Structures are given as C-alpha cells and as structure tokens.
Amino acid sequence: MNFLKKLFRGNTTPEEEVQRQGEVPDFEALKRDGLRALNERNPSEAVDILCQALQIQNDFEVRFALSNALVGCNQLAKAYEELQKLAEIQPGNINVFIRMAEVACEMKNYTAMGEACERGKLLDKDNVEINLLYARACLGVDDSVNALAMLTKTILLNENYTEAYQLRGELLLKMGDLDGAEADVEWVLNHKITLSDALLLKARIENARQHHANALEFYNQFIAQNASNSDVLRERSAVKQALGDQQGAADDLKQANELDAEKQQVV
C-alpha cells in the first residue's frame, strides 16, 4: 500500500510532507463528515466539524445541519441564531421558519415562535405545519381564541391530523366545551387508540361530566401506560374517592407522593 501511495504521489521531502499536512481541509470532506456525525447522533462532533466547514464556505445545508446539531447539544439559543442567518439568506424558504418555530417552542419562547409562524404564513397561509405550530404558539401565551382558530384551520387543511384533534380537544375542555372536546377525543381514539394522551383527555372529560366510573376506566388505561405520572395518580385518587373507594384513593395518593419523593432525590 505504501508503495502505491508513493507511486501516485511521488517522493516527498519532509518539508513537503509537513506542507501537505498543513493544507486547508477540504470543504466537501468536512461537510460530509459533519453530516455523518449528525446522522450518527454525535452532535458535539458534528458542531465542531460543521463550524470548520462554514469557515471555508457559507453553505445553506451545512448551516441548517449545524442548527440541528446545536439543538442536539441543547444549545437552543445558538441554534436559533443560525436559523435567523438562514432566514436572511433564503427569506422565501418556509422550511426555515418552520424549524425556527420548532426551536423557539423548545426554548418556550412563544413570542419568537409566533413571529416565525407569521413569517411562514406570509409565504404559505395554508401550510399545515405552520398553522399547527402557530396554534401551539398561541397556546403558549394563553391566546385560546386564536389557538382554537388555528387548530380548526389545521384540521380543515388535513382532516387526519391526529395531533390537531388532540390539542383542540384539550383546549375545548379547558374552555368548558365538553361536547366539542369529547367529539375530538373520540375521533382520536377511533383512529389511534394507543395514544395515551387521548385516554387522559377522555378521562378528564368524563370526570368533568361527573361520570366517575367511566373516568376511572380511562384513567386506568392511561396509568397502565404511564405508571410514573404522579399528577394523574392524584386525579385518579380523587375519582376513586368520589366512587367511595377510600383504600384505592389512599393507595394512589401514597404512590404519587413516593414518586415525587424519588424525583426530588434524583434532582
């Protein structure tokens, strides 16, 4: 192998070898290695390599990948900054604003999330993802009216969008519209019965209707899939109390307190 290398490269002096090793890294090689590191879920390595690549060439794909790698490193603010740069480079690319909204959501910066969605809607007001994300942004700032409008529009655009039905059902329950909430959760259960959030929503609707036996059935199904949720255990405890099951209520409350104590020890 060494012979072949020498054959194609020729003889090199020590000085030439040092110069060759000191050459500027190839952009395409760095880009390839950075993307591979990201795909292999090594975000820290990906950040280092992709930053080197960007020092050589300002490339849209590399910067977008860098933003994702920064998210993987939990550097959300830096990831958002990279996306802002991309928005300046390609202001007509709706995918940039979708990603900006997603990162802002992880940051719990619902104002920035809403602004990203508004810019995205200027490009395509009927984009399903943008409308759902805008609804989430509205929920984040307790704007129930606009959140409801965005969720309803999302469902009109895609009548099979399970997440939109789920979110709208939760919102309608919060707004006191039990019939509307139940219609949405029934749709979810009929189309995706294993979705645990829908089971919890159904339990809460039945509880709000004072249908405690039905509520208990759905609380049981949810807790079977999420046994470590102390808040829901307390909710089920109250339902059991209403049904006269004092021991069951006490057991749920005890388990909830134990789970909370374990979480505090971990922290």
Automatic annotation (TrEMBL):
Keyword Mitochondrion: no
Protein name from the UniProt record: Tetratricopeptide repeat protein
Species name: Segatella salivae F0493
Keywords assigned by UniProt, alphabetized: Repeat, TPR repeat
Keyword Cell inner membrane listed: no
